[in-house]
Design brief:
Elements: H1 31-44, H2 48-52, H3 57-79, H4 86-89, H5 94-109, H6 118-141, H7 144-168, H8 185-202, H9 207-223, H10 226-242, H11 248-264, H12 266-280, H13 290-301, H14 314-317, H15 332-360, H16 365-381, H17 395-414
């Protein structure tokens, strides 16, 4: 388990364990394998409708939700009868408390929300809660580092699947990877940015993960998702400067490879920006009309400033801007303000602040570096983008990372 971080102890005897968990022996719960499947599903599911249900997107959404509930069922089976050990008992953290508050507030908002379809809003909430519930059940069945590592491995392979789908699919009208309606390039950018960082963390397991990280990074660049690329560069700068597994020579090689990649894609990049400047016209200085959208979001949001218009209500209430149909506010805090009001903004800030405080104070070296890099990526991306029924930092990833960091605190004190 040392690859998770140099400070994670090799043996589990540092804490008194209960039941059958003694001297590093763990029951074969199957939870790590299920965590890998869950990670793959969480990342790759955004392509399900594009691949199979373009004629009926609602069916694709329902299939995705049912699959998420099936994960909860199997996670419940894995955790049934599991005896919690010392590290698991220390999983509780302020981050998880804030996440629980976000889920509770979102659920309660369905009662007063203005979503056109309450059933659809409720279904998306169930999907979000199922993600968190599945990983928390898996954490109960196995020690947190084992679940986090398996979850990340599955997620990275999900990113590989997304990359292959993106490269095989026809490019969009503006030359980007993906599909404007069913597999948006910005969605690809979000998932791939997270996966590159996780693959880099896993690279201490072997060179394969390093090559996967390079391939995913190239695909991220090819999506031409501006917010995701800028956010990734910020996060990557932190990661390379702080990670102890990268030598100075390795950092130089990575920088050189980045310049080579940009040179290889230079023709596509210039063609895209030429097309972008032509179609955007005078809106370039307003971030492609985002400032106009933000003004509309604020004007409608202040009608219910404290509790907002309800979970998943944005798409029902915000009008189309010409040919552009917004599904979120293109700013994470504004999106939460619109749907959950000031209460939602406070809770989301609380989630990010608690996670950063927990990661910053962790003694778990490499996992600490990864956690902060993921935090930087999500926060920077959230300045000009959002996710309709989630956070830019997915809760299915943040929750187990918070639990793992908290368990490490416990082990450090016990030592």
């Amino acid at each position: 388990m040392s690859w998770l971080g140099a400070d994670w102890p090799e043996h589990r005897t540092a804490l008194p364990l209960q039941g059958a968990v003694q001297d590093g022996a763990m029951p074969k719960s199957g939870a790590p394998q299920l965590a890998a499947v869950a990670g793959f599903f969480f990342v790759s599911r955004v392509s399900l409708t594009f691949l199979l249900f373009q004629a009926s997107p609602v069916t694709g959404t329902l299939v995705t939700i049912v699959a998420g509930l099936a994960l909860v069922y199997f996670a419940l089976l894995c955790s049934a009868g599991a005896t919690m050990n010392g590290s698991q008992l220390r999983m509780h953290s302020s981050t998880l408390t804030w996440i629980a508050a976000f889920l509770a507030t979102s659920f309660l908002s369905l009662a007063w929300g203005d979503a056109q379809s309450v059933a659809a809003a409720a279904a998306y909430w169930v999907a979000l809660a199922a993600d968190v519930g599945a990983v928390m059940l898996l954490l109960r069945a196995e020690i947190p580092p084992e679940i986090v590592s398996s979850l990340m491995m599955g997620a990275v392979w999900g990113g590989v699947a997304l990359s292959l789908i993106g490269w095989c699919a026809p490019a969009t009208e503006d030359l980007r990877l993906g599909n404007t309606e069913f597999l948006h390039p910005n969605t690809l950018g979000l998932e791939l940015g997270l996966c590159v960082l996780m693959a880099q963390h896993l690279s201490r397991r072997g060179a394969m993960w390093r090559w996967i990280a390079i391939g995913l990074a190239l695909t991220l660049l090819r999506t031409l998702s501006k917010t995701a690329i800028i956010a990734f560069l910020c996060a990557e700068a932190w990661y390379l400067l702080q990670s102890r597994q990268w030598t100075r020579a390795a950092r130089v090689r990575i920088a050189a490879a980045a310049f080579v990649a940009i040179a290889c894609f230079w023709g596509v990049l210039t063609a895209y920006f030429d097309l972008y400047s032509t179609t955007s016209g005078g809106q370039l200085e307003t971030l492609t009309g985002r400032t106009l959208l933000w003004a509309i979001v604020i004007s409608v949001g202040v009608e219910r400033p404290w509790l907002g218009h309800g979970f998943y209500s944005f798409k029902s209430l915000v009008p189309s801007l010409g040919q552009f149909v917004p599904v979120h506010a293109h700013n994470e805090l504004l999106h939460q303000f619109f749907e959950l009001g000031i209460a939602g903004v406070v809770i989301v800030i609380g989630i990010y602040a608690a996670f950063l405080r927990q990661a910053w104070g962790s003694v778990h070296g490499e996992l600490r570096t990864l956690a902060i890099a993921l935090w930087i990526f999500a926060v920077v991306r959230g300045l000009a983008d959002a996710v309709p029924a989630e956070l830019c930092f997915p809760l299915w990833l943040m929750a187990p990372l918070a639990a793992c960091l908290q368990a490490t605190h416990g082990k450090a004190r016990a030592r």
